[in-house]
Amino acid sequence: MSGRVEGKVALVTGAARGQGRAHAVRLAEEGADIIALDIAAPVASMGYPMGTKEELAETAALVEATGRRVVARVADVRDRDALQAVVDEGVGAFGRLDVVCASAGVSPPARPLWKIPADEWHDVIDINLTGVWNTLSVVVPPMLAAGNGGSIVVISSGAGLKGVPHLGAYSAAKGAVVQLAKTLANELASGQIRVNTIAPGTVDTPMVTANTQQFKLFRPDLAEPTLEDCVEGFRSMMPMGQPWVHVDDIANALLFLASDESRYITGTVLPVDQGNLNRAV
Ligand SMILES: NC(=O)c1ccc[n+]([C@@H]2O[C@H](COP(=O)([O-])OP(=O)(O)OC[C@H]3O[C@@H](n4cnc5c(N)ncnc54)[C@H](O)[C@@H]3O)[C@@H](O)[C@H]2O)c1
After folding, report:
1. Which residues of the chain fall short of a pLDDT of 70?
2. Is 194 in a helix, a strand, or coil?
3. pTM (2 decimals)?
4. Mutate-to-test residue for ligand 1 from 73, 87, 106, highest number of ligand atoms within 8 A of CB
5. Is residue 62 part of a domain?
6. What domain count does the chain have?
């Protein structure tokens, strides 16, 4: 099957690399024009690098290589005016907006919640929660005005549905965006705009593979654990036995929710996590 989102226009946040890039490219392969944005700059309180301008340009080139059009811009999801400008430019260029994937996010160093520094707490909440709200706020008006319906997908996390020790701010923000998406699904159903959430388990992106400060979760016995030291720890959490899933596994779920194949699915949370959330023990 091809052309599953033919003629649609999709906006993807956090598109410089990782899942966001995979979403942009997968949607383009299936016929969508893409509005892509990323902060493309460091977030000081995080212990790993963010995407870069060069990576955002590479995403744009990958989209164009599929034959689809792209507007790729640097924007911080904490800056609602900047998001508004990107949406205005993208909708101006492509004439519509049908699909939105809010994928931008950060994952802070692992520590008990009473030890989270205030700046780190605010960055996680501002990006992973308020950044999603900002995104939803600027995309809904043009989608409603167009009257074409549409599909919005928020990337939450398995950590948003469980209280993951040492990831308190992250779990709180990811849990909150599930409720935000469910609320919006109720608000937009009559407008034929669907809103769903994907809850990935571990995915092999730099958020995990370059996030060395989280490796201690798996190997507190080592002074400076490497990713290799942690592979078995990641694997041990997963009933299906892989340490992580691939970005394409999340992009394929996104594509289904973005396409009309899921036209009556709204308000749901779709885990893509090797059965981790459903584990009996
Ligand atoms: N990787 C995992 O294991 C995993 C698991 C569950 C959920 N998630 C979620 O999936 C989403 C995508 O993460 P990923 O795995 O692709 O990680 P990633 O770090 O590779 O990509 C995240 C992208 O978001 C961008 N970004 C960060 N802050 C931003 C901001 N303020 N404004 C705009 N862009 C910003 C980064 O520059 C980066 O390019 C995130 O919301 C993350 O929390 C990831």
Report:
1. 1
2. strand
3. 0.98
4. 106
5. yes
6. 1
